[in-house]
Amino acid sequence: MNNDHIKMLRCLECGGKLTPLPEGGPAMDRLSCEACAIAYPVLDSIPQMLAGREMRGSGHAAPLDMGKPHQQEYWEHELGPRQADHAAIRAFALPKLDLVEATLRALGDDPKKMSALEIGSGSGYLTAWAGPRFGSLTASDYSTNRLRINPHGEKVCCDGTRLPYSDDAFDCVICGNVLHHVSVPKDMVMEMRRVSRKHIIFLEPNRNNPLMYLYGLLQPAERGLLKMSLSWLRGLCARCGLAETLATTHGLVLPNKTPPPLVGTVTAMEPYLRPHFYLVVMATK
Prior knowledge:
The chain is 28% helix and 22% strand. The chain is of the alpha/beta class. The protein has an 11-stranded mixed sheet, sandwiched between helices. Strand 2 and strand 3 (39-43) form a beta hairpin. The longest helix has 20 residues, at 87-106.
């Protein structure tokens, strides 16, 4: 983690700037608030910017309560062996990012000159392909386990509904397949709006695809996708005061499930088969 990113981080309690400690030591193990002296642990170079994980008088971080057991298992489970260069991952990520980049450029913005925050980065399926398209990108996730296997450099463990940044900290905030895991999605969207200077981007599962809907019914940790339709997400953006710039469905390749020999065939079928598996929605403040 570089000093520029550390300078962007803010204390969750008072909004104060953070100082890496120990000063002049071989490796920082915490970030201390200059205003209120609360410190946040740093594990494997990943700041733990979560409420409830602060190091207070005892010097020890409190255990984190992640709510429902199936959600805790989801957040802390390390993903399978597929890496970012897997054929299914490329087929999932690249066309959607091409669409996002084309939309940004059509709006007069150059991604290479933009700073971006990705929420729900996980092990880096999207990060690996999004990072090179932006001037800078910070990967964030609720799970340190997932971030440990994410090869990206700038990472922070945080809650998407309580981001450790000041207002308008990034040009663009991206949320990939995580909004449907949040108990109150509006809280996350409003927090994304707060830290973004302009653009907010969502990639989410499409409940109107029968197979995706069935998946949501069968997997307790995925039940939140049962409300994720294009009209629902567009309405949520409107309720959060965002101006829509793109709203579409996209793709039939499942990054974790599509067998490699079928990726080419499934990709070729995408222009002809509906409904697609995913939603792509972009908006501005």
